[in-house]
Amino acid sequence: MPIFHPILYDGAYTYFDAINALFLYSFCGWVMECIVIRRERGVWENRGFVHLPLCIIYGFGAMFGSALLRPIAHNYLLLYVTGALLATAFEYATGRLMLRLFGQLWWDYSNKPFNYQGIICLESTVGWGLIAVLLFAVIHRLVFSTVSRLSGPASAVLAMGLTAAYLIDFTYCLRAALQRSQEEKEEELFDPPQQN
């Protein structure tokens, strides 16, 4: 059943379209991360938490951002500033949560100028603002027009299949990450670093 209330998108879409859009954003975020790391380090690296080519933080960020920032979508200057600040706050909160849960970050901005605790930096903040503007100017319409081309049954099967696959992969990876974190804490407890 199509949804006509424009919470996420001006056109008609279904709940399954919204789920598929979230995963499409997650895939695009993964691709962007891999390209950036390739450019910076010269090697290809899986940038997601899971084995699937998805960075779900981009999916949620894009979907929540598009819902929250819709009232200012036509004021590109305000959209840029607000998008940059919100995305930076989201990145910082995610980084702090990762440090608390796993004792490590999966990114490190400590070598970037104007960084804070290696979790956020000015370069990324500038980039988030640009992405916020592009999201409303081009990307969001393109993503929703792409996923809404699927027939109702195909959209439902894809959304449920992606959700199931992601949840299985996430559960496996979360358990492995928590186990590694616990083992590292135990090693530090029983074998403290040597003082010179």
Plain-language structure description:
- This protein has 196 residues and is mainly alpha-helical.
- The chain has one domain (15-171).
- Helices cover 67% and strands 2% of the residues.
- It has helices at 15-41, 56-68, 76-102, 122-147, 152-190; strands at residues 115-116, 120-121.
- It has a two-stranded antiparallel sheet with strand order 1-2.
- Helix 1 (15-41) crosses helix 4.
- The mean pLDDT is 88.
What's this model, at a glance?
The protein has 196 residues and is mostly helical. Helices cover 67% and strands 2% of the residues. The chain contains 5 helices and 2 strands, in the order H-H-H-E-E-H-H.
Shape field: globular
- Strand runs, count: 2
Question: How many domain units?
Answer: 1
How much of the residues is beta strand, in percent? under 5%
Enumerate how many helices there are, as a single number: 5
Helix content: 55-70%
Would you list the SSEs in sequence order as H and E? HHHEEHH
* Unreliable stretches: none
End-to-end CA span: 68 Å
Backbone CA Rg: 19 Å
Mean pLDDT: 88
Strand order of the largest sheet: 1-2
Summarize the main sheet. Answer: 2 strands, antiparallel
Computed structural class? mainly alpha
Q: How would you summarize the topology of this molecule?
A:
Blueprint: H1 15-41, H2 56-68, H3 76-102, E1 115-116, E2 120-121, H4 122-147, H5 152-190
Antiparallel strand pairs: 1-2
Helix pairs in contact: 1-2, 1-4, 1-5, 3-4
